[in-house]
Amino acid sequence: MSDEEFDDESDANELEKEGEDGEEEKESAEQEEERLISNPLTEEIMKEGLSLLCKTGNGLAHAYVKLEAKEKDLTDIGLLQNYIHLRYVDLSENQLRDLSPLGSLIHLLWLKVDGNRLTSATLQELPYLQIASFAHNHIKDTEGISHPRLGSLNLKGNKIQVISGLDPGKLANLHTLELRGNKIETTAGLHLPKLKNLYLAQNSISRLEGLQDLVQLTTLHLRDNQLVTLDGFSSNMKCLQYLNLRGNGITGLQEVAKLQVLPMLRALVLLDNPCADEGDYRLEILVLLSHLERLDKDFYEQEERMEAEELRQHRQEEEQDTEESGPGEPN
């Protein structure tokens, strides 16, 4: 056989091999999908994951009320409909797309379904659910969440762009909302007067809207967004004590002056904003916000407070003199 013939045969064999490899990869992908589709929750997994024996709701029997079934590649949890006494369920790091069987768990208090394939957090109303975590899924909105006793909701690391459907009448006890690491562009849609802690870091927020309804909010995280102005804060926010604005685009201290409408603000974080590079930054912030106790990582010392008070009074006297002399009078 000539070298040329050998090369041609080698090329043909290589192409055939590549074709076989491609088919194998395709078959592997199909098998993977088939494996995901056909991996339901089983009695054996339930037996391994059940714990915490307690009295049932009527007190006449006992049942296991806690289930942990993490990292099982589960695609179907239909079996859970038979375990109506469950109160604590952790189904994190599976392949779940459908949570409808959880609607039968009317005694559920605590739910964690982080790291699945969910595109929605919609669930049938669960009357006793208090803590729910849907972190790191593919959820695109905040619709369909209506659990009357829900206190803490975690939607971190999803694909939410707009906050909508959070009905204060159906979420009357929601005090903590975690929306870090989504694609949210505005704070509009947060009509939750009982909310105390709101985490909105690592989004694309450029507009602060609808904050006037957050009358009980004490903590607000807005780190690593796209804010350049601080319009939108409201004097209705009488409880806000901690505000994190690190890593935005706030350039001038005149924007910080807009925070004077927040009477209880005690801790402010402005690191990694252009305004933090201005001269006498710490002093100027304290002149504007006299009730502030901590800026960035450091508490204000008494000496700083005295200096800020003197500077504030001096500027007030200068303004008063200017007003009395009038703008048209010669020096």
Describe this structure in words.
It holds the Pfam family LRR_9. This is Leucine-rich repeat-containing protein 23. Essential for sperm motility and male fertility. Plays an important role in the proper assembly of the third radial spoke (RS3) head and the bridge structure between RS2 and RS3 in the sperm flagella. Residues 1-33, 318-331 have a biased composition (Acidic residues). This protein folds into two domains: 39-183, Ribonuclease Inhibitor (Leucine-rich repeat, LRR (right-handed beta-alpha superhelix)), CATH 3.80.10; 202-325, Ribonuclease Inhibitor (Leucine-rich repeat, LRR (right-handed beta-alpha superhelix), Alpha-Beta Horseshoe), CATH 3.80.10. Helix 3 links the parallel strand 10 (242-244) and strand 11 (267-269). It is an alpha/beta fold and 331 residues long. A 13-stranded mixed β-sheet has the order 1-2-3-4-5-6-7-8-9-10-11-12-13. Helix 4 (281-288) crosses helix 5 (302-325). The chain is built from five helices and 13 strands.
Topology at a glance:
Blueprint: H1 3-37, H2 43-49, E1 50-55, E2 62-68, E3 88-90, E4 110-112, E5 131-133, E6 152-154, E7 176-178, E8 197-199, E9 219-221, E10 242-244, H3 253-256, E11 267-269, H4 281-288, E12 294-295, E13 298-299, H5 302-325
Parallel strand pairs: 2-3, 3-4, 4-5, 5-6, 6-7, 7-8, 8-9, 9-10, 10-11, 11-12
Antiparallel strand pairs: 1-2, 12-13
